[in-house]
Amino acid sequence: MTIVLWFSCSPVYRQHYNIEATSDEQIDINEKISIAGIWLSENYYNSLKEFKSPKKAQDNSLLLVIPESISEKTTIMYDFHDDFENYAIVKNLSDYEIWENFNNHNTKFEYNIKVISSTKIKIGETILIKIDPIKVKDFFHNGLKNELLVLEELLFKGIYITLDGKKVEFKNNGQIEGLEGFFYYKPEIDYYDQGMQVDQLILVKSEKSIEWKDLEYYGFKFNMDTLELYKLNCIDFDSTYQQCGIVENGELLYKLWRIE
């Protein structure tokens, strides 16, 4: 589960991602942000496309959400596990900078952003590319949180066919059609908690009001354009937290070939 932390990014994170402060001169804070959008670290994108495993790609990943206006906060997410929302973007001469922001005041310079092109930026040694995932209300929090559907857009989106010739569509908005009464799917993007030893996704059988009882967890694997969904076997149950601590893929339940 993602935890929102309300303090500035630590020096450990800066060192880990090779991000260094270079300037603290701030001007023209009312200027529109030309690099607004969703930015994803290139190493995560490339790993996801090559291995089709969000678990494998997670380490050292970075997601940056830059708003249209400086009146809105900037979000930085590390490894799809910790996200920080107390930042703002400002422009310093021809450069963009990220500042720590509390109570609508920029209090501390954090990072310099180098614009490489309209679809690529760089922070320290970390290159990020622009992506365009759909934003929806997170059904885990009764619609109280917004969620970016990154894996739906980059990994799952497409039309598949089953062994018996039926078409199944995974949409980039989290909807699914044609798979035995399931209405929604949610791939897991954070694998730092218990019971996350294999790539997983959730399938939902409720079309409207979604409750925990409606969520069914499956393991998944991509083999080229073939998507395999597995029953999850619990290898070790954590009685303290009343949840499975170690899982593995069990019986193969669905095999789907992507056709477009």
Give a brief outline of the structure:
The chain has 260 residues and is mainly β.
Question: How are the elements arranged and paired?
Answer:
Layout: E1 3-5, H1 11-16, E2 37-41, H2 42-51, H3 54-57, E3 62-66, E4 74-78, E5 82-92, E6 95-102, E7 105-117, E8 120-123, E9 126-131, E10 135-137, E11 146-148, H4 150-156, E12 158-161, E13 167-170, E14 176-177, E15 184-187, E16 200-204, E17 215-223, E18 226-238, E19 243-258
Parallel strand pairs: 1-5
Antiparallel strand pairs: 2-3, 2-9, 3-4, 4-5, 5-6, 6-7, 7-8, 8-9, 10-11, 12-13, 12-19, 13-14, 15-16, 16-17, 17-18, 18-19
Q: Give unreliable regions as ranges.
A: 1-28
User: Helical region count?
Assistant: 4
Separation, N- and C-terminal Cα atoms? 32 Å
Question: Roughly how much helix do the residues carry, as a percent range?
Answer: 10-25%
Instruction: Give the C-alpha Rg.
Output: 20 Å
Beta strand %: over 45%
Would you tell me the structural class of the helices and strands?
A: mainly beta
**Number of extended strands:** 19
- H/E element string? EHEHHEEEEEEEEEHEEEEEEEE
Shape: globular
Mean pLDDT figure: 84
What characterizes the major β-sheet? 8 strands, antiparallel, barrel
Order of strands across the main sheet = 2-3-4-5-6-7-8-9
Description of the structure:
The two termini are 32 Å apart. It is built from four helices and 19 strands. The radius of gyration is 20 Å and the shape is globular. With 260 residues, the chain is mainly beta. Helix content is 10%, strand content 47%. The strands form three sheets. An eight-stranded antiparallel barrel has the order 2-3-4-5-6-7-8-9. It has an eight-stranded antiparallel sheet with strand order 14-13-12-19-18-17-16-15. A two-stranded antiparallel ribbon has the order 10-11. The relative contact order is 0.13.
